[in-house]
Amino acid sequence: MKRLHWYDYLTINMFWFGLNIRNTALGSIFMPYLVAIFAPEAIKNTALGAMRSAGLVIAMLVQPAAGMLSDRSTSRFGRRRPYILVGALFDCLFLAAIALSWNYWALLISILLIQFSSNVSHGPLQGLIPDLVPEEQRSHASAVKAIMELLPIVLVGLTIAKLVGAGQLDWAIFATGAALLVVTLITMITVKETPLQQKPTTPFWPSMLRVLGMLGGILAGGLAGVVGGGLVGGLAGLITWPLAGQTAAFAAGIGVGGAAAMIVAVVAGVWAGCLGTLGRDARKRSSFVWWITNRLMFLAAATSLQGSIMYFIWYAFKLTNEKAASLSGTLTAVIGIFIIITAIFSGWIANWVGRRRLVWISGIVAALGNALLLVTIWVPQLAIVYAAGTVIGIATGLFMTANWALGTDLVPPDEAGRYLGISNLAGAGAGIVGAGIGGLVADAINHYYMGLGYFAVFAAYAVLFALSSATLRWVKGSEKQS
What we know:
The chain contains 18 helices and no strands. It is mostly helical.
């Protein structure tokens, strides 16, 4: 494996830039904007959550499957690039289908199709750095990859969101597809792969069964969360009823039950998924399982917050859908800028205060930023929104670097790929927990008190941030990292 030049870091990671432009634009802008148009007002949060959850289930299945199939590819064009090209071309086709959607069901089908095609590219893409970058240069290549994943958060907020805000949805979708095509062409032309001469003998289905085990665990955790949340919510309602009346009791029960459901879903889902994939090793490495729990709690709050901020802003500031999309894009850009700035320095900060302690701090800081955002329900001031975005961005930047570094300390060195792959699947389950349950809660409470549903769900996200720090009690790292 030959040593790379500085520009190779860019070309190998260029597709991450286009892929995350597509992901950010779709998840933060296009989906909430179009669901608000197509779905009845009373169920739009539920409709958006269901769409996100269904898409994430597809992602959890297709991404590892495509990655493993590319491992076995003997194409003369290389193992990864054919999948990247095919996935990107179908992405552009399905982006056009999104632009032409005429109702919620047409949009849902288009979203599920693009989740399939996107992950046909995404799974094999993860193999480019291990395939092409010498081990001593991988830290530099991974740093460039992280930048390519974070820059689109800012770029989409300042460009594509503004086009939607100006009523130019078609041009926003066209710009997204054009950016994806450009980086695809750069990747196809500049990245050089050596074709695989002999197909690996490692069987496909045992690995895929482990993926199904993790997915089954997360879904089982979701079911446990609904049951547990229902019991807790029912108890909260019974306590509230004599004090505040029937309507308030229903609203309180749903809010408390929804928060409990998210918490139970994360803990039960991670443990069930890890037991399904690791077996007895899950109990032996309980620190690793609790690390995934910490990661999933934080990401469930962070990704759901990003995906539903448009509706929160729409209510708090009494805006049109277009203006809410534009403002949420600006807030996303603010968060992205501070994620990038903080991520650059977080490695040094982690060495100073310790990885585990920095992860703990990030959860508390994110909870405080989320709590500040809730103030805008009563005091709709842009300054508060941007201040909250700054705090959440700083916390997320700290978390993304320190949490992953902590995780690499907890996995067995000879099975790092297997263990960290499980954590990636758990991360994909974050949206299922946060958006799937959160959408139902928001609509149910809004039925009784319009706007209170957004407060309840965002308050639940603040609780998840804080509890992510609490789970570190069971993560036992080395003295150096604690």
